[in-house]
Amino acid sequence: SLSHSAQVKEITRDIKQLDHAKRHLTTSITTLNHLHMLAGGVDSLEAMTRKRQYGEVANLLQGVVNVLEHFHKYMGIPQIRQLSERVKAAQSELGTQILADFEEAFPSQGSKRPGGPSNVLRDACLVANVLDPRIKQEIIKKFIRQHLSEYMVLFQENQDVAWLDKIDRRYAWIKRQLVDYEEKYCRMFPEEWCMTERIAVEFCHITKVELAKVMRTRAKEIEVKLLLFAIQRTTNFEGLLAKRFTGCTLTDAPGQQKRPESPLDQTNPFLEDEPGDDGGSEKDEDLTKPRKPKAPGNPFHGIISKCFEPHLYVYIESQDKNLGELIDRFVADFRAQGPPKAGTEEGGAVLPSCADLFVYYKKCMVQCSQLSTGEPMIALTTIFQKFLREYAWKILSGNLPKSSSNSGGLTITSLLKEKEGYEAAKFTVDELCLICSILSTAEYCLATTQQLEEKLKEKVDKVLVERINLTGEMDTFSSVISNSIQLLVQDLDAACDPALSAMSKMPWQSVEHVGDQSPYVTSIIMHIKQNVPIIRDNLASTRKYFTQFCIKFTNSFIPKFINHLFRCKPISMVGAEQLLLDTHSLKTVLLDLPSIGSQVLRKAPASYTKIVVKGMTRAEMILKVVMAPHEPSVVFVDNYIKLLADGNPETFQKILDMKGLKRSEQSSMLELFRQRLPTPPSGADSGPSLSFSAPTPEQESSRIRRLEKLIKKRL
């Protein structure tokens, strides 16, 4: 058993030795074959190089290089090292020889005309593919330089055709050259070299430098039409390149360090403005609409047209001038046509000039963003801001009627005699209509300016976004809105003033019986019915500002009414009953004010109703306290505190004045008032917390109950 095991081990060892020997023998044979191929290949390579048999060299060279890689670990052997050095020498000689052949065929200097395409040079390019990459780059550079040498002469800076007005000739020249290349030399260079694109790209680099040079020299001659013409033709050409080429050479083209920056908006800037395109006529509401998806970006955008950017100040200055003329035209048109007339479609509507302004803004913004998304866009934004303010001042604020334009108003006598008082309103119907129109326009401008800011931020480079801020201009339009509402409020307020004055001067002590509402109430209601429907109809498109008008008017009118109420002194019991009836009539009208005179009954906003109820209930409570007997004093004071919840002694004294109490009686009443206050006075400015609970029967006189019955009966 042991001897058998030993025999197996011995046999296994022998087999392993045979395997190793076989492997080494195979490797040796393979290596010798490779060495034979390498030696023969190097000999052939040197011979073919001398004979310029580039076609055979191209096939052989790559094989020799591949075989040589197998001997990398044998470089210590002198014979192998010698073969390697011969291969390197052959490669170096091939490179020098091929470059010399191209120089001979396409001389960079001298008057010798370039030769035509040849099979030798075609094969030489195939050899260059497996040589040092610098050989290929040098061939490309030499050929392109020679191919564009005529361009450099024809379009020198001092030549007539070099100027912007003949920029088309540059692009026509390169188109002819590219066609000529495709016909003559296309097959001479390997397809993957993309020679047509490389020629076009090098032409673009040269053109960019040459145009920049000539524009610097003749900067004073650049007019905006000429500049835009040159930019349009250039961007059209860049668009043409994008259709023809992929842009694959832009990252490694000679002289090109990096791909040109891709602007935010990469479509052709002038396509939108060509006939048949509605880009220039879009309403500015379209600023908010999503744009159509853009086509893939043009890698050639800006490859030439970037040179125009330093001169875009000419374009910006022209827009400054154009917008100035546009604003002047708006002013002249407004004066010539007059304000919108009441009862017409234009009455209260947005002024058409503001739509024209924003359409022009959009056109400029799109155009400028195509030219540059950098500093010129910031400069244009500054121009936009300037003329938004001018529009607000010259067209809107400048045309608001002055509050003192029409004198008028009711005399006390005419009010008392209930004569017609339509002349009391300071503004005519057309003037009210104009104010509403300016308000609506300011609201439109405010919303559209916000959209404009968002669009500008989208168009501009990200690093410049923070510098675009139209808040100041939006605030200006907000001020126009506030001023317009204030004018409407002041107008109606002023129309009611004579009536309130008449109320405070009436002999309330000598009123003998309670009748219908007083003439001053009829006058106030008449003015409300005259003004409010006009304002409501003309602000139909901007309901929230009509509500603001109603709230502001009520907030102004009710405190004024209460102040005049305090001036009605002394008041008899019957006089107070009449005033309470008048107050209730005014309260009813004010509650109905937002929809007064309208066939469509719409519930007033809760915020408005709350103001009216709170203010007019206070006026009613004042009169109820005045009507209550002042004896016993404690009951009167407690009743006042409960009804008015006003801890200000001045208000209490005004009530005592209205009741006609003597100063001696008032002193003791005031002392009692201070004692009976449940908490320390919170100050004159604290608003009363109204109590809607009715006084107890013990505190209320029979005359108050009779008055309430009278009011209910009238309603």
From TrEMBL:
<dbReference type="InterPro" id="IPR007234">
    <property type="entry name" value="Vps53_N"/>
</dbReference>
<dbReference type="InterPro" id="IPR038260">
    <property type="entry name" value="Vps53_C_sf"/>
</dbReference>
<dbReference type="Pfam" id="PF16854">
    <property type="entry name" value="VPS53_C"/>
</dbReference>
<protein>
    <recommendedName>
        <fullName>Vacuolar protein sorting-associated protein 53 homolog</fullName>
    </recommendedName>
</protein>
<feature type="domain" description="Vps53 N-terminal">
    <location>
        <begin position="6"/>
        <end position="334"/>
    </location>
</feature>
<dbReference type="Pfam" id="PF04100">
    <property type="entry name" value="Vps53_N"/>
</dbReference>
<comment type="similarity">
    <text>Belongs to the VPS53 family.</text>
</comment>
<feature type="region of interest" description="Disordered">
    <location>
        <begin position="676"/>
        <end position="705"/>
    </location>
</feature>
<keyword id="KW-0333">Golgi apparatus</keyword>
<feature type="compositionally biased region" description="Polar residues">
    <location>
        <begin position="688"/>
        <end position="699"/>
    </location>
</feature>
<keyword id="KW-0472">Membrane</keyword>
<dbReference type="InterPro" id="IPR031745">
    <property type="entry name" value="Vps53_C"/>
</dbReference>
<keyword id="KW-0967">Endosome</keyword>
<feature type="region of interest" description="Disordered">
    <location>
        <begin position="252"/>
        <end position="298"/>
    </location>
</feature>
<feature type="domain" description="Vps53 C-terminal">
    <location>
        <begin position="577"/>
        <end position="661"/>
    </location>
</feature>
<feature type="compositionally biased region" description="Basic and acidic residues">
    <location>
        <begin position="280"/>
        <end position="289"/>
    </location>
</feature>
<dbReference type="InterPro" id="IPR039766">
    <property type="entry name" value="Vps53"/>
</dbReference>
